[in-house]
Structure formats: C-alpha cells, structure tokens
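User: Could you write out the 3D structure of this protein bound to KG4? I've included everything you need below.
Assistant: Certainly. Input first, then the structure.
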Amino acid sequence: MVENGSRILASVVASQLDTHGKYGGVVPELASREHLRAIVPVVREALAQASTSWADLSAIAVTSGPGLVGSLLVGMTFAKAVALVHGLPLIAVNHIEGHIHAVLSQQEVPLPALALVVSGGHTHLYEVRPAGAESDEPGYRYRLLGRTRDDAAGEAFDKVAKLLGFGYPGGPILDRLAAYGDPHAVRFTLAKMKGNPLDFSFSGLKTAVLRWVEAREMGAEIAQRKALLRERPHPSLEEWLQMTPPATRDLIASFQHTVVEELVRRAAVSAAQVGAASIVLSGGVACNSALRSAAPDAAHGLPVFFPSSALSTDNAAMIAAAAFPKFERREYSGWDLKAEASLSLA
Ligand code: KG4
Ligand code: ZN
C-alpha cells in the first residue's frame, strides 16, 4: 500500500520459494495455486499493517503483465472484484515499469535515465524520460534500447546454479559463494552480438559452464552436493562453503564476473548513447553484490541508483508506486482489462 506514489504504508510479500525450490524452478501450475491461496491473507495483512480500511483507498493497482498468465489472472480477478465492490478505479501496471518505480518512487533520480531491469524474466535496457517535456504531465515515457536474445540474467544464474547442484533460486547463493572465489580464474569469452550491439545473450555462457563441468568431471561433487541439500535445504554459510570446493568457487566467481561485466558495460554504453543523466538498476539481480559494487565504477561518473533490497525482488509496493502517475492522469482501466503474458513496456 503506497501513499502519493512514494510513501510505503505496507509491503507484504508471500514467498513461494519453498514450494518451487523442490522442483529447481518455478512450476506455473503451483504458482497460480499459491497465488490463489495467498491473495486474501496478504491483502488483509497489508490493510492491517497500514491501519487502513477499504474506505481509505483511492485506487487499486494491478499487474497486467508480463508474467505467468495463471498468476496474473489471480491478481487481475481479485483486483477487479475489490475495485468493483468498493467503487475504486482500477489501474493496470506493467511489471517492468513496477521494477523501475522501485527506484524512481524512492529516490531523486535525474532524468533522462538509463534503466536496466535484470530479473528472472528480463534483461532489458530502457531510456526513461518524463512523459511531457514541455507540459507538466505526470508520468514517464520508455524506449527499449536492448534486451536479452535468450536467457535473462537471473535465469542464467538460476540455470548455472541448478547445473552445479545448488537449489533454486540460484542467484542469491551464487552471489554469496562468489565472494570466496577468484573472478579471474576462468576466462569466459562471449560471442559477439550481431544486429543490435546493446542486446544481451547468456545462453552461450551457460553452455560454457556446462562444458567446464564436463571437462573437469564434476559429476560426483555435484551429486554429493544435491544429496547434502536434500538433507539440509537451508545450510549455513560455513556448510555452503564446505560443500563447495575452491575450484568450484572460482568457477562461480568467474561466471558472476562475466555476467556483471556484460550488464554494466552495456548499461554504460547505452547511457552515453542517449545522453542519460543517471543509471537505474532494478529487478531481482540488482541485489547482486558484485553488480552493486561494479556499476558505479563502470558508469563514467554518472550516478547509479539501486532499489532497496526489499524492493529489488518482486513486490506489490512498486506496482502501486508505478500506478500513481497514471492515477494523476486518470488513466483507469475498464472491466475488460486482460492479463497479458508477454506485455511489453515499449
Ligand atoms: O525480480 P524477481 O524477484 O522476479 C522476476 O521478475 O523474475 O527476480 C528473481 C531473480 C531470480 O532469477 C534470482 O536468482 C535473481 O533474481 N536474484 C539474484 C540475486 N538475488 C535474486 N541474482 C544474482 N544475485 C543475487 N543476489
Ligand atoms: Zn520481477
């Protein structure tokens, strides 16, 4: 629940990691079922946390896409129902716009900005400008400058973690273990991009890690790690380190270093191209500690903004924040609003 587009009165997140962790990735059927189970208690808790009632609200914001359509539909149906019952306008928000507003709504970001949204589903570069350069019209305009051609950065972290026998999601654990490895131990070379030089590709890197694992015959180590994790699904850092030999830590650190280099390099190049006054990094991968420390140096003096950790991964506060300029413009949706799995922002 967000007041005036920036003040977070309540933020409640229902994690599904325990549900999907067992399967090594998100299972769409289970995701929609869990959404259905969680949505009423989560909304109730948000109202209670903010000490508000339905009567205090001005509008209902809902994610209309992109994402898993089953999960989107749960949110959409619920949002329409409560908006209708309580006589509130319904505002559709793009999930990616939400990630960008996790930063714009909380910090003074000089515009135009270059926004890099890096999550499990996206690795997208956008130019962000005020909606009306001459008028005072609230809101923003977005232009897509580059995107991943295959895997998203978070997906690459998750897939590499899975192939090395770590649990899901892989990003946070690889991030922790990379701190204990040498990022220059393994030199991965990425294929040159044909076409748009601002596009990303991570599937070759994933294959290179796979080749490395095969060449080093790491099968037994990986099987042992999987067995250990079945017994203790939430190990301590010491236990993580015990089950990850130094050569594997080096591999993880080198993989992470390669991904981070790609991200910060293209963010800096595209920022220069569009004359951006700042760089915004958002989405789950924006939690990555190597990315957080590398980005300011790579930005050639431009200020770099990250969301708080709580607003980096998926949350509803960023959706409510992104809805505010639309609320000011009275950009309301009709009851025929549809969930769109591959909705694009620009
Ligand atoms: O934005 P998000 O919560 O959900 C999507 O919209 O996808 O992002 C989740 C993704 C996962 O792929 C996860 O592995 C990755 O963000 N992630 C990280 C870190 N924390 C989360 N990747 C690298 N380092 C991290 N510290
Ligand atoms: Zn997301």
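The pocket of zinc ion (ligand 2) is lined by residues 95, 99, 119, 283, 314 (CB under 6 Å).
User: Perfect, thank you.
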